[in-house]
Amino acid sequence: MRSIRGVVAVGLVGGAMALTAACGGGSGGGGGSAAKADLGAGAASAKPAAVPSAAPSTVPGSTVPKVSKAAVNIEPKAGSVDVAPNALKIGATGGRLTTVKVNDRTGKEVPGTISADGSSWAPAAGLEVGTAYRVSAMAADADGAVATADSDFSTLTPTALAKASDNVDDGATYGVGMIVSVAFGKDVKNKDEVARGITFETTNGTVVRGHWFGDRRLDFRPEQYWAPDTKVVVHYRLKSVEIAPGVYGTDRDEPFTIGRSQVSTVDAAAHKMTVVSAGQTNEIDISAGAPEHPTWNGTMVVMSKEGVVRMQSSTLPGMTGAPYDLQVPHSMRLTDSGTYVHGNYWSKSSTFGEDNVSHGCVGLKDVEGGGSNTSMGKFYDGSLVGDVMVVKNSTRKETLDPSNGLSGWNVPWGSW
Description:
Helix content: under 10%
Shape: elongated
Number of helices: 2
Structural class: mainly beta
Distance between the termini: 27 Å
């Protein structure tokens, strides 16, 4: 899977980030059972059948048949087609449900739970789309007299399928600040259902939560940075979730690994960057944003390692000073709006550690085309997508928008 996947759906376009490269009811009721639809022929051909009245039931110790006061109610009614996958409702009145069986056309049982008071049954998850189901349920009244009901129906077939795109590759290794960002090609209608349909399995029990940025982007992270060497599997279970009207998701699993810890702290006032990587500390001279274009303060994450990137002043709104058009080496993106940490070969050597001259990026000493033994070359080679960069003491007054790049660490956990 590519880093940001295209959404595979009719009329859908994946990815929500615009990136720039500028440095800057009726039911089976009572007793008896409804006529069964022929599941082998598809429930769409089934016709509703009359449901007989509650059958007499003999109370233990009595020879007099007795009609149960209980009634079982199933929605959808027998013979229904194009049923939404979350529309199944099974309940009881005048008694308690005792047995509920829901099976698909292959005989596979749908797991579910009867409520503590016996008044209802709920499936553990949404039903499959485009599938025929058979329901058999039983309830008993206070005297033990039994009522039964049955129903056959089929769920709808989606008009379109949408594969939610994200920013992780199967089996890849990421830094401890990695945020999984999921994008949708249309406004999401059922945000809570979609969020519940994406879960994280981790080897150390790390709890992961999602946070919506608008109607098309859902980001996931833990409370603190990931622990090194954590194995993660993202489980997408959206096949039965209506993402947009008539559009349903898909199911898949996506594994990745968290590597060693690396957190870099840029002190813009001191023109220094302190890198703590796998327990080792290294200080590097840098040049941050000039007073006219100060660097964002806040916590950012390496979104991508892009190598040589053409950066032009014409793409930076409100740019002042001499225009530029440069092939910038060892470029690692930090924000959608164009903030990078990158190599700088055009400034004097004395600039690094002494002055801030960039248009908002963090620059390290490099050579044209990029050198492996330069400050930026070494930093680039040792970095991972998902590594953390914290900028402090910049003169910039505006707050970095948490949706600008993978900057969700700037949102308190209580608000996430």
